[in-house]
Design brief:
A hairpin with a 4-residue loop joins β18 and β19. Helix content is 19%, strand content 28%. The strands form four sheets. The protein has a seven-stranded mixed β-sheet, with no helix packed on it. Strands 1-4-7-12-15 form a five-stranded parallel β-sheet, with no helix packed on it. Strands 3-6-9-14-17 form a five-stranded parallel β-sheet. The chain has three helices and 19 strands. It has one domain (12-176): UDP N-Acetylglucosamine Acyltransferase, domain 1. The termini are far apart. The chain has helices spanning 12-30, 36-46, 111-114; strands at 49-50, 55-56, 60-62, 68-70, 75-76, 80-83, 88-90, 95-96, 101-103, 105-106, 120-121, 124-126, 131-132, 137-138, 143-144, 149-150, 155-156, 164-167, 172-176.
Amino acid sequence: MLAGELYDAADPELVQARTRARRLTRCFNASHEDEPSLRASLLGELLGTVGTRVVIEPPFYCDYGSNIHLGDHVEINFNCVVLDCTTVRIGDRVLLGPSVQIYAAHHPVNPRERLRDLELASPVTIEENAWIGGGAIICPGVTIGADTTIGAGSVVVRDIPSGVLAVGNPCRVVQRV
């Protein structure tokens, strides 16, 4: 899975890891604003790396959690979904608007391969000081460069360079910043 090769999501070890993540996200999502220590502890247990001054507003959902690596001063707004079947790296000072979805998981394009019930995963990277607008979807294998803004509702299907404003479906650069 982590190597980008076809894998069986029904493998007992993977099912157990997803069950663990569901338990931890359920506890995190049920926590209250006046329980910052509990929230920090749950995120520390769930995520692969958590920088300093990270804020995630519940509800938050992910497949495994352990493949998510957050830098310092990351803010993730309500209703974020991260399908982290491989590495998802979010750099320092990144802002994610509400309902942002990050998909590292995907399926074979060939329908005969899909019938084998195997899946794929490709890493996603969001570099430092990026802002991802609400409702944006980041697709598998994408890197978003530093100091870049992705407009609300955009669907990012290919790499976006540093220092730009990019919007739309498919997301495209409209301005250098």
